[in-house]
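Action item from last week, closing it out:
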Amino acid sequence: MTKASFWDRRRAAVAVEAEEVRAAEREADLAERSDEEILAELDLPMPEEVEDPDRIRAFLTQAVPQRIKTRALRQLWRINPMLANLDGLVDYGEDFTNSATVVENLQTAYQVGKGMIARIEAIAQPPEPETVTLPDVADDDEELPELAHTSFLETHTDEPDEAAVTPLRRRMTFAFETTPEGTA
């Protein structure tokens, strides 16, 4: 096996570039023409009219533009029973778009790039303290209602109920035996 020289590799690269330019010109020329003209020139039927899967091979030549090849391959999927019948093992074969349940004028709190940040901020804000209004009491010797005599500190404590406190899980501890120095 001989190693190609620089000039041999360069000549091959120029030939490939020239072929790519010719292919691009051919595609541009075919893009201007209609599919019916191209099929009549190549003596091919309409891809949708083909019923034999072996006849699709004629559409896959280099002379046929990509848009007609795509139409022929779609027809192949329709007529070939091996390709047309899904066996249920296709992971993404179902329609997950949920287009039947789309609600018109749907409004959401989601913001692009921020997510549900407004909802989270509203939850994070501390609730406003409740105000308790006491009933008006006359200055005479009437007995004050029970609510007026109790103080907030008597009814609310910051200490949790002892029954509600769960013990913390103990962490694993390790004990290493010490050996006298010099023994292995």
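Closing note: The longest helix spans residues 6-32.
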